[in-house]
């Protein structure tokens, strides 16, 4: 088993349990495990048998430290083994070098290893001609070993006699070690290849320049027989496979463990379990099918079977609506398929199963879901609409099968798109384009006779068109059997075929009658063929292609050497900025960055090169600045707290749980305080309470003062809080992220010049200058130190606000030794300038904790076990706990903090504490000293203990003005949209491609007959459907992209919450102006709709832009209303489907019975009515004789015909536009309201 960073972000105690479990499994199964790790505790380190350092070291774990000691590197007791080894491998081992020992570079370390016995023994094992099992055991002295002569053959096939140490007999039972590879039990005849006596380094018996091999082996045996203590043996045994093992070995050699049928059955069972776990999602889809089915049935209520042209057109439209709805019901599955794809890639690469098994399992598990949706939808629509029940209900069953095939086809198409799309934005764009093609060439929105010759092939292979033909053929052939001769006056198309059945005559009139009419199986076969094609294409792409797993699509920025963005005048300053950094700790936080003292003022230039321009946040300044004004002073703050307690109320059980209780202490200015211990995040809860971010799900009590006064409303302006989750806007550069924070959080008196200098100093202090102009999201691929850079960025964003106190949640969690040292070294510089640092460290080590001045240790019950100094290598803490009575003795070789955590029950693994440490602390001298400091600070301002979490005033004054807040938030959102290439580019290219498609499809259709008029009017219908539905759906995932960053900013109180949705509302405007202009310019220009005058073109463009904006704001509103993006997608799909159906096109206004209210509250209706009026209006009242208004062959004018059918009026256009604008404003205001009021949009809910 091979594990690549399996424990990243895990709790160290959980890590220990996981590694221990894996080791146990490996010993039982006689297998091996290899793990790539960068951070582990000493206890976890001790669970491994061998370690491999990236500098090519490969030695037994027990010998690793002693091997380095032989090279001149001595591990101190306070440093854990993994830190010690990582430092040496990273060439940071000077601190461990013994006196008179020479430092070794990485190449020298590799050479030393290659000449060591460890390496030679590994090469010996690898070079064996036969397969051997190598294992380790621990045994007591007295095991029966003896010398044995063996015969070996060299490469020339010459025979040689060698002596070996073998197990002759077992005098007592040996005990296996707990290592992963120690799975063998000693057997008589096993060859001993290595011996470690009394914890000494392993002596390899089969390697080394030994002149008298037999004499040497006798000496080893003699030493082993007299050894006292713990010994280790490395043994080998020929791997003789029995006949019983042959089937197992043959199976292992096969590319897949299970045969195809068995793996497919296993995958089907897994997919069914996943469906069961996602039962709420399945229920949502079923509810969606029911709602849309009932709505469509009641919208077309009892229109079937009536010999009326208008009603027959409605029945034909019902076929289009039902196939469109059942197809689009499956669209919310697309993001779920994209989420499952990384898991498939992992399993495919590890050869868990064949790709075909995965695709077949998907096909099988989608069958019941598709059938349930089709059944619920079909039953609701069919009987309410009054469709035919001829042939004893067989027609209904045919309709049910048709809807099932369309639903299953839709699921297969979106599954295929999830296999070919690199990222969700591309998948959504492709889905919109493919759905547009299916609907445009369905034969409903444009009559087949009006389709240009170059597109008719696409109509012929369109499965949705054949589904519509199948529906209409069944309904009109069996539901309208009366002869046309009975309806010559009512049905105009009957005049051409008076002897024909009315239904068949209508099929000919509507161009739905084909040479395959009557062959009902043909549409079914076409749908099945398309479904199989989609699945086969998905199989091919899934089998051959693997897309990199990137959560967000950001452009990659080429790595380059950074250049300082602030330069001192070279004539004045001869030393570079980097030269001053060397003495930063001794001379102050920013003193290292100050220029030499001068008698006169100096010139400071802050500039950006042309390529590195970051807009208005970084402009060029050339001003006269006094050197002492380069830094921003920090206001010293001292926190004092007495008897703090927090009791949390369970959400389900309503039982109270104590996070921490009666915690007292202080944090003076210029000190570092660590919070350690507790259970279930007790230390983090204490950190939040100290920073003023009191959780809302509990009761906080105690005395808490800031500089001997009660915290004011502006206390949060003086603190920075680096959260554990590194949530940042991915489309800002690192420098822009700091500028955004500093511009909103620094006090108003700070000039722009000093603010920019401050930002550059912070970047330099945290070592982020190299990455300063990289987008945050691109750092995933731009550096090998991604996690460390993310931690530094989180800290830098808070330091940009120049806080007096910096609070940090687990700042070193998941970092390796060098990353931990880098972060803590940076934090240790802050107290020099008067800043305080308070951080939680869940499972500290001695070296990390030694960076802090003081520490609070909580017991597992949340009580205070210690508050006091840390001391050099934690000796102050160690001295306190070793002085407590009944403590176990401390061994000098032990790690101090590991000993302390172990006796307090906080170690790894956790055990019960040996005594009541909270009581011991309250009776200690340290407690008396702490209380003296706390009482002195509080004696001048006593206030009563609060019984709730309202210690800090609710009112708050933002540092930045409201104008600056809205300006900066708008600029940030604008950059998000501009740099989000896939979202912005896909929107624009989508509009261009759909415009080209529709323009070429409706290219210059003339008013020669009713077919042309109907097709031209339906162009507007399809245009509004496509751009409206796509706009409403596309905005949903994008708002969620930076939601976590927004929550962090709100907790930091950077700006008013209302400015976040406002920025989205305003920033979308320019993009939709361009996109709709491209859509109208290309599509309408080719189709010749609303292009007769510039006024009509501008009016059409303006209304379509307003409608697009309206639907986008609607999508935002639903996103803020719904607690999750998945639910928002379902709601948008349901509501837009209803609006499209009730827009007065597929069902005329006069035929709508129950939903006239929806007609008048429908943005699609207002947009379609206005756009149709702009495109077709002509004042026919002025026509006498010859008239320029287009007219039909029967003498009626086009506008009169359309206006009478669609209930349109030119006088109503202005009112419709105003109504559409009002709806646009309403959606935006409701989005603001939902965003502010609803709890799931609150940062405290996340």
Automatic annotation (TrEMBL):
PROSITE patterns (UniProt xref): ABC_TRANSPORTER_2
Sequence intervals crossing the membrane: 283-303, 315-337, 358-384, 396-417, 429-447, 521-542, 985-1003, 1018-1037, 1058-1082, 1094-1114, 1126-1149, 1217-1238
Organism: Digitaria exilis
Highest taxon above the source species: Eukaryota
One Pfam family linked to the record: ABC_tran
Name under which the protein is recorded: ABC transporter domain-containing protein
Molecular functions per Gene Ontology: ABC-type transporter activity; ATP binding; ATP hydrolysis activity
Keyword annotations from UniProtKB, A to Z: Membrane, Transmembrane, Transmembrane helix, Transport
UniProt topology in membrane: Multi-pass membrane protein
Entry-linked InterPro entries: ABC2_TM (IPR013525), ABC_transporter-like_ATP-bd (IPR003439), P-loop_NTPase (IPR027417)
Domain ABC transporter: 639-885
Subcellular location: Membrane
Chief location: membrane
A cellular component annotation (GO) from this entry: plasma membrane
Region forming the signal peptide: none
